[in-house]
């Protein structure tokens, strides 16, 4: 199976702890050895937010802040590459094309951000579409897609299954609410809908859940099913 795994920066490298990064690399290696074709997309997490906050104070504009964010996602990508050793392409792919070329060579591409004004959620969806992935996995810090931010509202309920167009409607509603934090952003949801990619959003703080979702198709999270 061809799988794109999106690993949020807050999940992969909340504090740059090497053992954590090694666990995600080991999970990808296990799936690789089981014969799956993989691509990984890595977010910027708290380190990106720290840089962005500081540069905003210094007067950087939003595009400059995005460029800073992209740089940090690629730094996190290099951490994962270091842990993956020879199985990964040696540098983070800076375009979808070079990521796809890495897959063709038999390497595991690691992507960070690609262009300003989006997030790695959207990069993962676009890359999954581009390489015709069978499955897209979002390993995030929440256990799926909820009707409200579960970190803010303890009453929030999780959706176990959604169609892609339902996902778009829910995320659009959440993004209208100031300060809300959707597990997948609206652009990503639109690409998932357009491409019809089977997608799973799960709590990725334990990398074993990523392995189980891919290898056993067993997961506790939200499954997004393409429309017939
Ligand atoms: P992330 O995708 O990591 O943001 O990109 P996030 O979703 O808030 O963080 P985690 O990792 O899931 O916790 C970090 C920042 O990098 C820029 C944006 O500014 C984004 O907020 N970025 C990222 C881009 O401009 N383009 C990209 O393609 C990716």
Break the fold down into its secondary structure elements and pairings.
Blueprint: E1 2-7, H1 9-12, H2 18-33, E2 37-42, H3 45-57, H4 62-84, H5 96-105, E3 110-111, H6 120-130, E4 135-140, E5 161-163, H7 164-176, H8 186-195, E6 199-203, H9 208-216, E7 221-225
Parallel strand pairs: 1-2, 1-4, 2-3, 4-6, 5-7
Antiparallel strand pairs: 6-7
Helix pairs in contact: 2-4, 2-9, 3-4, 6-8, 7-8
The structure holds uridine 5'-triphosphate (UTP).
Task: Note the main attributes of this structure.
228 residues; alpha/beta; Carbamate kinase; seven-stranded mixed beta sheet; 9 helices; binds uridine 5'-triphosphate; cytoplasm; UMP kinase activity
Short description:
With about 230 residues, the protein is of the alpha/beta class. It is built from nine helices and seven strands, in the order βααβαααβαββααβαβ.
